[in-house]
Automatic annotation (TrEMBL):
GO terms for molecular function: kinase activity. Its main location: cytoplasm. InterPro entries: HATPase_C_sf, HATPase_dom, His_kinase_dom, Sensor_HK_TwoCompSys, Sig_transdc_His_kin-like_C, Sig_transdc_His_kin_sub3_dim/P, Sig_transdc_His_kinase_NreB. Member of the two-component regulatory system NreB/NreC involved in the control of dissimilatory nitrate/nitrite reduction in response to oxygen. NreB functions as a direct oxygen sensor histidine kinase which is autophosphorylated, in the absence of oxygen, probably at the conserved histidine residue, and transfers its phosphate group probably to a conserved aspartate residue of NreC. NreB/NreC activates the expression of the nitrate (narGHJI) and nitrite (nir) reductase operons, as well as the putative nitrate transporter gene narT. PANTHER family: NITRATE/NITRITE SENSOR PROTEIN NARX-RELATED, NITRATE_NITRITE SENSOR PROTEIN NARQ. The keyword Kinase applies. This is Sensor histidine kinase.
Length: 343
């Protein structure tokens, strides 16, 4: 059996490969490129009888630390495996590629530069990210439903049964004083039950947020936090505009609400500072927020206590309206949740 000629195989691979293959010299001039590279890259003004420079296509190299300066370009390296580079295509688009660069002819200082499109990989990653995001959102929703269901069953249902039993017994009470006493206890139980249901309603969606705006809704919530957890809130509202887009107000409310719940559950503090301030620099109009405590803190790199969906939810909520949220904490140094949202 005759073995295929290696040179012929390499030439066939070069010409027919779906991978973009370019040979460049030490100056970055393209010595050869295969058909796929020629059909993909911008060939404006390209004369095949002349060298063409790779820099006319390259729009930037990126490594783990971010964009790499041209002074540290891959052209000056002997070998770099799997880095990201943006190239201008024939259609004028700037497209990301996964690249490899290797010196194959040290004598003549010729290197091979291979490019594989990242678009499909990014699309796949985006699909996977969306799946994971959807799963976590569903988990968060189911967790909330379980909590509300448990509260309704353990709190509302049990209290209603107790009141019902008390009222059924009233018809057997002949003594007027004893009857008045049982009626008073039933009224007290119903009053507590009403507060309990109102608290659940406020947690789900406070009416004041829609009717009066973010400032009024937060002040009401802070009073509830103080009654429920004994934590006072030092609130500074340095905002001129009283009402914002409903989605922005909801995101701000939920981020602050979640931050306060976390402080109440884990920080071991009796006070929390909340600051909302409005900043405007030309077209850059934003609401900055900060929720800070001086509690026990935690290591941000550690696995979160509980489900971990609280911090995740805050980040997703902020990004949904073009904002950002960050958490700064350390053991014994308290916790600060901060960020901003464009308005």
């Amino acid at each position: 059996m005759n073995e295929p000629n290696l040179t012929a195989l390499l030439e066939a691979m070069f010409h027919h490969s779906k991978e973009m293959i370019l040979f460049v010299n030490k100056s970055g001039e393209i010595v050869h490129m295969n058909a796929h590279a020629a059909s993909t890259l911008d060939e404006t003004g390209y004369d095949r009888s002349q060298f063409q420079h790779i820099c006319s296509h390259c729009q930037g190299m990126y490594m783990d630390g971010g964009r790499v300066a041209c002074s540290n370009c891959y052209l000056y390296e002997e070998e770099i495996v799997s880095f990201q580079v943006y190239m201008r295509t024939r259609e004028g688009e700037v497209v990301p590629f996964i690249a490899n660069f290797q010196r194959i002819d040290p004598t003549n200082e010729i290197s091979v530069f291979t490019l594989n499109p990242l678009a499909e990989q990014l699309k796949t990653q985006e699909i996977e990210h969306q799946k994971r995001l959807t799963q976590r959102i569903i988990q968060a929703q189911e967790g909330e439903r379980k909590r509300i269901s448990r509260d309704l069953h353990d709190g509302v249902t049990q209290e209603l049964l107790n009141v019902l039993l008390e009222m059924r017994l009233l018809k057997y009470v002949d003594d007027r004083e004893a009857l008045n006493d049982k009626v008073a206890k039933s009224e007290e139980s119903l009053s507590q039950l009403l507060d309990y249901v109102r608290n659940i309603s406020v947690e789900l969606r406070p009416a004041s947020l829609d009717d009066l705006g973010i400032e009024a809704a937060l002040k009401t919530h802070f009073k509830w936090i103080e009654r429920q957890y004994g934590i006072s809130v030092d609130f500074r509202f340095e905002v001129n505009q009283k009402r914002f887009n409903a989605e922005v107000e909801t995101v701000l409310y939920r981020i602050i609400q979640e931050s306060l719940f976390n402080a109440a559950k884990y920080a071991e503090v009796d006070s929390v500072e909340v600051v909302l301030e409005e900043t405007e620099n030309g077209l850059n109009h934003r609401i900055k927020f900060r929720i800070e405590d001086t509690g026990i803190g935690f290591r941000t790199e550690d696995a979160p206590i509980g489900t971990g969906l609280g911090l995740f939810g805050m980040s997703e909520r902020a990004s949904s309206v073009g904002g950002t949220v960050s958490v700064d904490s350390a053991p014994g140094r308290g916790t600060k949740v901060f960020g901003s949202i464009p308005v």
